[in-house]
């Protein structure tokens, strides 16, 4: 090999090392080296934010995740927050949980609070109501205005689903006193009046069909000690008059969930009971 060729090879070695090994120097020598996190595209927080604001949630998550796990980057907590919101929007609650928990460790109190607020809703979506009400109450104490009212509201709903009716009423009344939005105030007022949960087997514009369903399930519901199905007149969200078929009354959402699963009837919904 002549001298010029040797010099050219030496100059190319750093580039070859980058192409063949660790892509992100922050992960060199760690358990993340050469993993999907390491080999993912390395972007900026501005790019991650832009993707999220454009509704490109998968791109925002894919670009934000490696930043979030890079302990050498000052913007890792912000990236974790946006990646968590993106994962939630994609329906990937497990990844949203991980990212938002990461973001909650931010030394920035505002970002930590925003992350807790979002994480509480993820916990609620996962049915983890005890954890949901805990982080939502923590966030609510630090938020202001309508966001504070909404954090208290969702914490109160989580408490209702746990069967913590006294605590839930207090939390919801606080939320109602904080909001200036008349529509939301009415929604909170309706939630305060919730007294338990029931299973909705169906909703029919033809009352005869509702009665037929109630009769067909009566023996099974009685054997399960749920009592007989009830016909309840009401309206849909669109204002259409219908007859609902309800069965059972439960003080906690978890109990309603267990009986819904045990009933084994497709399309059964858990609905709130009000006076």
Key structural traits:
disordered N terminus, alpha+beta, 275 residues, Serine Threonine Protein Phosphatase 5, Tetratricopeptide repeat, 13 helices, Alpha-Beta Plaits
Apparent shape: elongated
Along the chain, the helix and strand elements come as HHHHHHHHHHHEHEEHE
Structural class: alpha+beta
Query: On the 0-100 scale, what is the average pLDDT?
Result: 89
Instruction: Note poorly predicted spans.
Output: 3-21
User: Could you estimate the helical fraction of the residues in percent?
Assistant: 55-70%
Tally of distinct domains: 3
Distance between the termini: 91 Å
At the fold tier of CATH, the topology name of the largest domain is Serine Threonine Protein Phosphatase 5, Tetratricopeptide repeat
If you had to describe this structure to a student in words, what would you say it looks like?
The protein is of the alpha+beta class and 275 residues long. The protein folds into 3 domains: 3-39, no CATH class; 45-192, Serine Threonine Protein Phosphatase 5, Tetratricopeptide repeat; 196-273, Sporulation related repeat (Alpha-Beta Plaits, 2-Layer Sandwich), CATH 3.30.70.1070. Helix content is 61%, strand content 11%. It has 13 helices and 4 strands. The protein has helices at 3-20, 36-39, 45-53, 57-68, 76-89, 93-104, 109-125, 129-140, 145-161, 165-178, 182-192, 207-223, 253-263, and strands spanning 196-204, 230-235, 241-250, 269-273. The chain has a 4-stranded antiparallel beta sheet. Strand 2 (230-235) and strand 3 (241-250) form a beta hairpin. Helix 3 packs parallel to helix 5 and helix 7 runs antiparallel to helix 8 (129-140). The longest helix has 18 residues, at 3-20. The protein starts with a helix and ends with a strand. Residues 3-21 have low confidence and may be disordered.
